[in-house]
Amino acid sequence: MSPGRLAVLILTAAPAGAVELSMPLPAVQTFAEAQPLASHRVATGPMQGSALPVEVVEGSVTRRVHQLAAGQATTLQMLSPLRDALLADGWEAGFSCETRVCGGFDFRFALDVVPAPEMFVDLADFRYATFLRGEEWFTMIVSRSGAQGYVQTTHVGAPGSVEAVTKSSAAVVPPPGLAAVGEIGTALAATGRAVLDDLVFPTGSTELPEADYASLAALADFLRANPSATVALVGHTDAEGGAEGNMAISRRRADSARAILVDGYGIAPNRVETFGVGFFAPVARNDTEAGRSANRRVEVVVTSVPE
Question: What angle, rounded to 10 degrees, do the helices at 182-191 and 214-225 form?
Fold first, then answer.
């Protein structure tokens, strides 16, 4: 399949048994779901500009997340024994990559990932791997935060062959190592992301009017309290206009917020990246003015945390 092509594969193989992987370190399963027929995006290569080459596969989809007592183990040390177990069970290795080779932020947010706090992906330290056996697919995302590891596995089998899944009753542990300062800091410490809801942009506008923005002041406080943490500012638009123009507008909105954070609050430039995702991640409907206004926003995402 040529890079960048979007394909839909319907799995017709005989129902396969559950894929049971033993985690290489002490672990607790914090999320599990099984659907008799659903779709799952499988990356077949790294980001190519703003596009991710994928195959969209359909069948029974079983997704699990484990949190591991990783200690000093690297993401490769966590992934390697899982990969070896799959290969020994007859799976063939497909595409795999790590962090910036994958495409960093853009790659991670193009995938089907369970949201925090169950699954946390450190955008400065993660690995991705795919496997194929007959017409079954298996994907893994492995990341870590401080001494805690995160592993998301997704198995796509024949339609209707739903695996029995159970979710652990243990409490979900949020990414460690962050001081929760203020409302935004609390959200970032718990889930890794927050909306900067007082940054208001008219349709088509990329500049923030001169004002005091409480959300940026709070974000600056959070970054000062967590001097090793880095973040990404992610711009969004409503659905007015074309995709290419909105991608550029959303990036410039994030750039406007970053300029205030750096120039107005003295945050080091290398601690704040900017990205734009256009109208591809709405939080409200785009057929009302209230919905469009909500979609024109900037979010902050934690990209790395201190050990």
Answer: 60
Contact indicator for 208, 258 with CB cutoff of 8 Å: no
> CA angle, 278 as apex, 271 and 244 as ends, to 5°?
115
The secondary structure of 84-126 as a DSSP string is HHHHHTT-EEEEEEEHHHHTHHHHHTTS--PPTTTS---TTSE
Residues 36-47 as b/e (b if ≥16 CB within 10 A, e otherwise) read: eebebbbbbbbb
Residue 288 DSSP symbol: S
Other Cβ atoms within 10 Å of 22 Cβ, number: 8
Per residue of the chain (307 residues), give pLDDT as tens: 333 333 333 333 333 456 778 898 888 888 899 999 999 999 999 998 878 999 999 999 999 999 888 888 999 999 999 999 999 999 999 999 999 899 988 898 888 888 777 888 888 889 999 999 999 999 999 998 777 899 999 999 988 755 555 544 444 455 556 788 888 988 888 777 889 989 987 777 788 888 889 999 999 999 999 998 889 898 888 888 888 888 889 999 999 999 999 999 999 999 998 988 888 777 788 888 888 888 888 999 888 766 5
Sketch the domain layout of the chain as residue ranges.
Answer: 7-157, 182-304
Q: What is the CATH number of domain 7-157?
A: 3.40.1000
Full-prediction pTM beyond 0.85? no
Q: Hey, what CATH topology would domain 182-304 get?
A: 60s Ribosomal Protein L30; Chain: A; (3.30.1330)
